[in-house]
Write a structure and sequence with these properties.
The complex is a heterotrimer of chains A (67), B (401) and C (544). Chain A has helices at 2-26, 29-47. Chain A has 67 residues and is an all-alpha fold. Chain B has helices at residues 7-13, 20-27, 64-70, 76-86, 103-113, 142-164, 170-192, 203-215, 218-233, 257-265, 294-305, 314-330, 345-362, 378-398, and strands spanning 31-35, 50-54, 95-99, 130-134, 245-253, 268-276, 335-341, 366-371. The two termini of chain B are 25 Å apart. Chain B folds into two domains: 7-171, 3-Layer(aba) Sandwich (Rossmann fold), CATH 3.40.50; 235-398, Rossmann fold (3-Layer(aba) Sandwich), CATH 3.40.50. Chain B has 14 helices and eight strands. The model of chain B has no long low-confidence stretch (mean pLDDT 96). In chain C, helix 3 packs parallel to helix 7 (116-143), helix 7 packs antiparallel against helix 16 and helix 11 (215-225) packs parallel to helix 12 (244-257). The two termini of chain C are 39 Å apart. The chains are: A mainly alpha (67), B alpha/beta (401), C alpha/beta (544). At the B-C interface, helix 3, helix 5, helix 6 and helix 13 of B face helix 12, helix 13, helix 21 and helix 22 of C.
Chain lengths: 67, 401, 544
């Protein structure tokens, strides 16, 4: 009986997760999260990232055989 | 300085590809062979019985028909050549010895030989006219030498022999090398005067002389060139130079002497060149080493002297900057003008890196210019050149020179 | 409270509604354009394709691929350390952190309106591509010494141009790893999320590069100039594939990489028989370079094993072409066909290609046996020629949904059209040379006009009645032959739509402009009406 209850609960929980995922899929909630939240955050991060100055890169690779 | 005796004559010869001397050569029974790129060895196109013309399209400011065929987004040089071809300006050619060394000139040359199955696509109205392509390597290695030599044998020598009955024997090749070297030595002799502290020849004049040697049959222009060299021996420079700085002109395609005139009118004397149609290394005599066939010598010469931006080896990419700096030093240039034609892929990148690396690593100021084939926007360019001249002058003053 | 509209309810055909719910709306009634949130490319809700296909799209595409993403990351990344490296890479590189998270939307865009076997066959292709991306992403990050990657792996890794065929390194695959440098940071990003690449193009121009060279090469240079290249390789092999711009951009790459570099150019006039030997020697040169720089040994058996495996893929590709050319039962849409083929041919052999091909074979066999018309609303069989807009590869699905233009095949799919012999070293080497010469954007675009005009033969072979002529505004090779195409189209009485674009850069020609051009042609020249008028105009300016 208890096992049956646990099974029912598990199946119920899995069904709820499945339905939730379907809602995410159908209403494009993954896209909306990425578009309105994640991407702006990442853009900000990458725009403010300190980067190497390309003009400081030496032009001196020397490899006698293949240079 | 006193005007050079033949300058106006030379200038006139440069007004069209089919100039008086080319017509005379044709009357003499020579086969006239067109080409566009240094990688098509000029010397091979001047074997006994034929002459070469490095194609130009002077005064072509509005290539409308070519723009239909090649769109407005390809380099003006390639389009101008196409326009001139469509106008009938290259109808005198017996063959075009082509290379796929840059995309747009390649496309232009492909058009010359295109035969549509569905409509008459003839551009050169000569049934015997042919276009033959040679593959050109991207490296300076033994493999590239073998490849290039094979290509020149098959697509130049065998082609000329089979199609036009041209003698391509070693003896004939040696004769062509001799003729070529003679021209080179004259041009080199003339060029030596550019190394003087106060040069007795301008960049414009030198450009005209160099171009004439590419656009005219050697056997008909040689004497005039020799006379000019002799004339320069006694030519006196102006007491007070009318230039403020000396510059090297480097970069991509330029066969417009007026562009150099424009630079010089802004106070920068052009004393050295490293660009298509005017590279110093393009007029270096060919040496046949011991045990070498004439074709092998020619192959080596062209492959190794070229400083084209299409070479991909690491050492070549880096050496190109060194060569530009070495020329500047040898010819006592105060600065370097690096040019690329609009829509030129190779020289857009090369110009960008030259503009950064040469000042930083070699100490030469660089003026970076994107130009058209024929430069109608001379006002803007003049402003750029004047500003460059002023900045270099200022630098010289600050350095106490 | 609003009163219920009884009149409307009364007039509602519930039987039809129920039918549409179960089977999906028929093509012609779908109004897919109304699903978009203006400007974003996001969906108000994803398409209801009927119960069966919606559940397939949810379970077998969306859920499955998200699941596989996680699984691939764990398996390919080599466990928890791989996951940490992945997270570090995601936070460090714009092309990763801003781009690849949106991968499922890329798949969505390319499968819009698909039903039945076409939905299934096309989706499998994307699964293959995503896995292949993750192979490279995990390899790059695990080796990236600037992110604390494994130096021992770095020592045994060769970076190379994405346009250099990965198969060149087959003889060493048991001892080292080869990773195409730009395929993930540049090429796939443009399809997946085209916002990212604009940063790189701007970076190149900010340093003085004019705006007119090929924007692909500009972007490749820009990735270096923006310091966005992972340090995962010990040495580098570059190539001249496919054009002047690729050669020219090497100058910037070489400078910024500042490591040992081997140039492996291929001949341009590849019809000349005598060029093969030169090409073969260059491949041998790359092998020698690899041996010396990475301390590995040439393994003939490994080469044969990989080539045989690749030949198997090629044979199936030919079967696919046969079905595409001669039946209405080809279950793969134009964009899936193109991207899968170019990725597979260029990258080289991978287990995932075989898994995908096995699945697709089943689907295709079923379609052929049961004579399923996979794209039933096809009005025109289209061949797409020249190089495609990377930011709008999904135009194929749009054109089918809106106008019934079914892209059967495209130029870049037709590259690498050969098997490689493995019976002797010499034959194998010559075939490898030939294969490399027939690379994308090269096989048709260089070596003479006869190649680009193979269009006519392929139109006939694939039974196409219309050409989508890509007009890459900054491709000098294709611009240089524009007028002749016009003349030939006219002389041959071929309906061709010129589609202007700038490869990765949507700022030159927007997707809406591309659609306008197609719409205008279909209305005015073809005199046809759209199948789905809601797709004629919609705002996706800022979509991925």
């Amino acid at each position: 009986m208890k096992a049956c209850k646990i099974l029912k609960k598990t199946v119920g929980a899995l069904a709820a997760v499945y339905a939730g995922l379907f809602a995410v899929y159908y209403f494009d909630l993954d896209g909306k999260l990425l578009y309105y939240v994640v991407e702006p955050f990442m853009i900000k991060r990458f725009d403010n990232m300190k980067r190497r100055d390309p003009l400081s890169v030496p032009y001196d690779q020397i490899d006698k055989e293949y240079m | 300085m006193r005007d050079l005796k033949h300058l106006i004559y030379f200038e006139e010869l440069l007004q069209e590809a089919n100039n008086d001397l080319v017509r005379k050569a044709k009357e003499d029974g020579k086969k006239v062979l067109g080409y566009t790129c240094y990688f098509m060895p000029e010397v091979l196109l001047n074997l006994p019985g034929c002459i070469s013309v490095r194609l130009r399209a002077p005064r072509c400011t509005s290539p409308d028909m070519a723009t239909y065929y090649m769109s407005g987004r390809t380099c003006h040089y390639g389009r101008s050549l196409m326009e001139r071809a469509l106008e009938g300006g290259y109808n005198f050619l017996d063959a075009q010895l082509a290379t796929e060394t840059c995309t747009v000139t390649c496309r232009f040359q492909e058009h010359l030989g295109y035969k549509s199955e569905t409509f008459d696509s003839t551009i050169i109205p000569n049934n015997d006219f042919k276009v033959e392509f040679t593959d050109v390597p991207f490296k300076k290695t033994e493999n590239s030498l073998d490849h290039y030599e094979k290509e020149l044998q098959v697509h130049v020598l065998d082609f000329l022999k089979n199609e036009y009955g041209i003698d391509t024997s070693d003896k004939a090749l040696k004769q062509a090398i001799k003729d070529y070297n003679e021209i080179c030595e004259i041009i080199q002799e003339i060029g030596e005067y550019r190394k003087l502290d106060n040069p007795t020849i301008t960049g414009y004049e030198f450009s005209v002389i160099t171009l004439v040697s590419m656009a005219c049959p050697w056997y008909l222009i040689k004497d005039k060139l020799k006379e000019t060299a002799k004339e320069l021996k006694t030519r006196k420079p102006d007491d007070k130079p009318n230039w403020k700085i000396k510059v090297e002109l480097a970069g991509g395609e330029n066969d417009d002497p007026d562009f150099i005139k424009l630079i010089e009118s802004c106070g920068a004397l052009v004393v050295a060149d490293r660009h298509c149609y005017g590279a110093l290394e393009a007029r270096v005599p060919i040496e046949i080493k011991e045990g070498e066939t004439p074709l092998a010598a020619i192959t080596r010469h062209y492959l190794y002297t070229s400083q084209c931006a299409r070479y991909m080896e690491q050492k070549e990419m880096r050496n190109r900057k060194q060569v530009i700096a070495d020329y500047a030093k040898e010819y006592k240039a105060d600065g370097i003008i690096v040019i690329s034609n609009k829509f030129c892929e190779y020289w857009s990148y090369e110009r960008m890196i030259d503009t950064i690396v040469i000042p930083r690593d070699y100490g030469y100021p660089v003026c970076s210019i994107e130009k058209e084939y024929i430069n109608s926007a001379s006002g803007q360019l003049r402003t750029r050149f004047q500003a460059f001249v002023e900045s270099v002058e200022l630098k010289k003053i600050q350095e106490g020179k | 409270m609003k009163k219920p509209d009884f009149e409307k309810i009364k007039n509602t055909n519930f039987k039809k509604l129920a039918h549409d719910f179960v089977y999906g709306k028929p093509h012609g009634e779908r109004r897919l354009g109304e699903l978009y949130i203006p400007g974003t490319g996001l969906y108000k809700h994803r398409e209801w394709r009927g119960i069966k296909d919606t559940m397939y799209a949810f379970n077998n595409i969306w859920l499955y691929n998200y699941g596989m993403l996680v699984k691939d990351l764990v398996v390919l990344g080599g466990g928890p350390k791989g996951l940490v490296q992945f997270l570090k890479g995601t936070m460090r590189y714009r092309w990763m952190g801003q781009t690849y998270l949106t991968v499922m939307h890329w798949v969505d865009r390319n499968l819009e309106g698909m039903r039945g076997e076409a939905l299934r066959g096309s989706a499998w292709h994307f699964r293959g591509i995503i896995n292949a991306c993750l192979v490279q992403i995990t390899q790059m990050f695990n080796r990236d010494i600037s992110l604390g990657g494994d130096p021992k792996l770095w020592e045994k890794t060769m970076g190379h141009d994405e346009t250099l065929w990965g198969g060149v390194f087959y003889p060493f695959r048991d001892q080292m790893t080869n990773i195409p440098l730009q395929m993930i940071p540049y090429f796939v990003t443009c399809h997946c999320n085209n916002h990212t690449v604009l940063n790189y193009i701007d970076a190149a121009q900010a340093l003085g590069l004019p705006g007119d060279p090929c924007p692909m090469c500009q972007a490749e240079a820009g990735i270096f100039l923006q310091d966005d290249v992972p340090d995962f390789f010990k040495a580098f092999v570059t190539t001249n594939e496919a054009c002047d711009g690729s050669v020219a951009t090497s100058v910037i790459q070489d400078w910024m990489i500042n490591k040992p570099l081997f140039a492996m150019p291929q001949p341009m006039q590849f019809d000349n028989e005598e060029v093969l030997e030169n090409c073969a020697k260059e491949i041998e040169g790359a092998w020698k370079f690899t041996e010396e720089k990475l301390g590995v040994k040439f393994n003939w058996d490994e080469l044969v094993k990989n080539l045989e495996s690749q030949n198997e893929l090629q044979r199936f590709e030919w079967e696919k072409w046969d079905v595409a050319a001669n039946t209405n039962s080809y279950p793969i849409n134009g964009v899936a066909q193109a991207l899968y083929r170019i990725f597979q041919g260029q990258y080289g052999d991978l287990p995932i290609w075989h898994e995908v091909d096995a699945k697709v074979r089943k689907i295709m066999d079923k379609c052929v046996e049961e004579k399923i018309n996979t794209f039933p609303m096809t009005r025109h069989r289209v061949i797409a020629w020249s190089c495609a807009p990377l930011y709008y590869s999904a135009w194929c699905t749009w054109a089918y949904n809106c106008w019934g233009l079914n892209t059967i095949i495209n130029m870049d799919s037709l590259m690498f059209d050969m098997e490689i012999r493995t019976d002797s070293y010499e034959n194998c080497l010559m075939d490898m040379a030939r294969y490399h010469e027939w690379a994308p954007m090269r096989r048709m675009a260089v070596g003479g006009l006869q190649h680009i005009f193979e269009l006519w033969d392929n139109m006939e072979k694939f039974n196409c009645d219309m050409v989508m002529m890509y007009d890459q505004l900054k491709c000098k090779g294709m611009q240089g032959v524009h007028g002749l195409f016009e003349d030939e189209f006219r002389a041959r009485n071929i309906n061709a739509i010129w589609m202007p674009h700038a490869l990765p850069d949507k700022r030159d020609v927007s997707r809406a402009e591309i659609r306008d051009i197609v719409n205008d042609y279909m209305f005015t020249v073809m005199g046809e009406e759209p199948l789905d008028p809601s797709l004629l105009e919609f705002d996706d300016a800022n979509s991925w």
